[in-house]
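Private note to self, pasted from the team thread so I don't lose it. Backbone tokens:
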């Protein structure tokens, strides 16, 4: 385990380390999808191709949202939840496969990742309206409904059944990563060989930046978010962060974040953020949540056992810990680094 004296980690997509003239341009669109901020980038010489590919990626992500969202009453996920303890529900193969993959990650993490955690989410609101804590009795009852092994998947009949009434599934810890993967695939199929899909911190890159260099992901100090301390250089990789600093509320001076430990039913503690780097945004999304709940020691032990997956953790004590194979770049002390509109500016 590596320990670094950085106070916090924030990811910033950087369009270029140094100003360069190029025939290629990065075309971007920012909009709200799946209840959060998406930024989709296509690098191309052809503006129409780039914009059409972004539009197609948006339509694909909207389609996925309509399929997997537990907040849309007409979605297949909502239908599964409505029939918990009653009957199996026939679903699209795509949704069934996502549930199968989710259960495999549950096995890998010994239940720390569990899409049936959704049974407890009704007790917690991170929209600024919660001013009291749920009772221990309510939490205990909801936790009793959490068990991914009670999600019964029949691949032959293409059905999903939640064994107990009151069970719910939700894809908040894996859905954005899946959507980012799909957005990337659609754009590649349309001829975009270089780009980024950034789903509010669930980010996947492919190809090169407009400067024909690999993509750079900046590490910033949240106490001064305009200053960059270092960066990762990646290509054809996903970088996904789960943090406690975006969705939370405070009661009597104590902070409660939106990442729920399915074992206790309470928000996970001890960690400020977790960043996972690997080739697949869906896996990175699920593992970022899992490591956040596991904590630094158990989380890094898990990641160091996995091939081609790296991790950065910022603890509540502002220590940054990394997995064994990660490569970080740092700036010289006499350099001034600023982020302006997600562009990195360096002054010597």
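Design output:
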């Amino acid at each position: 385990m590596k320990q670094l004296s950085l106070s916090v980690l924030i990811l910033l997509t950087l369009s270029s380390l140094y100003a360069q003239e190029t025939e290629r341009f990065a075309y971007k669109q920012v909009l709200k999808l799946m209840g959060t901020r998406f930024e989709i980038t296509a690098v191309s010489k052809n503006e129409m191709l780039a914009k059409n590919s972004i539009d197609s990626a948006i339509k694909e992500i909207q389609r996925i949202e309509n399929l997997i969202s537990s907040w849309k009453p007409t979605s297949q996920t909502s239908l599964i939840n409505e029939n918990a303890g009653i009957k199996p529900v026939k679903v699209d193969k795509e949704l069934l496969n996502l549930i199968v993959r989710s259960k495999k990650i549950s096995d890998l993490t010994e239940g720390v990742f569990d899409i049936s955690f959704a049974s407890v989410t009704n007790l917690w609101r991170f929209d600024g309206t919660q001013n009291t804590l749920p009772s221990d009795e309510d939490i205990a009852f909801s936790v009793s409904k959490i068990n991914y092994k009670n999600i019964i998947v029949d691949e032959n009949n293409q059905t999903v059944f939640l064994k107990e009434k009151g069970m719910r599934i939700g894809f908040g810890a894996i859905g954005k990563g899946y959507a980012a993967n799909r957005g990337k695939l659609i754009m590649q199929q349309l001829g975009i060989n270089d780009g980024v899909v950034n789903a509010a911190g669930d980010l996947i890159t492919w190809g090169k930046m407009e400067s024909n260099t690999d993509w750079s992901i900046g590490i910033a100090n949240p106490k001064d978010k305009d200053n960059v301390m270092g960066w990762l250089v990646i290509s054809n990789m996903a970088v996904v962060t789960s943090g406690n600093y975006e969705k939370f509320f405070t009661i009597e001076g104590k902070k409660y974040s939106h990442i729920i430990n399915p074992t206790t039913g309470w928000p996970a503690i001890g960690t400020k953020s977790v960043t996972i780097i690997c080739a697949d945004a869906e896996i990175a999304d699920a593992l970022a949540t899992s490591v956040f709940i596991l904590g630094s020691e158990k989380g890094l032990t898990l990641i160091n056992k996995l091939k081609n997956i790296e991790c950065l953790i910022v603890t509540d004590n502002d220590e940054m810990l990394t997995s064994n194979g990660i490569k970080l770049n740092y700036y010289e002390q006499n350099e001034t680094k600023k982020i302006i509109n997600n562009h990195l500016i360096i002054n010597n």
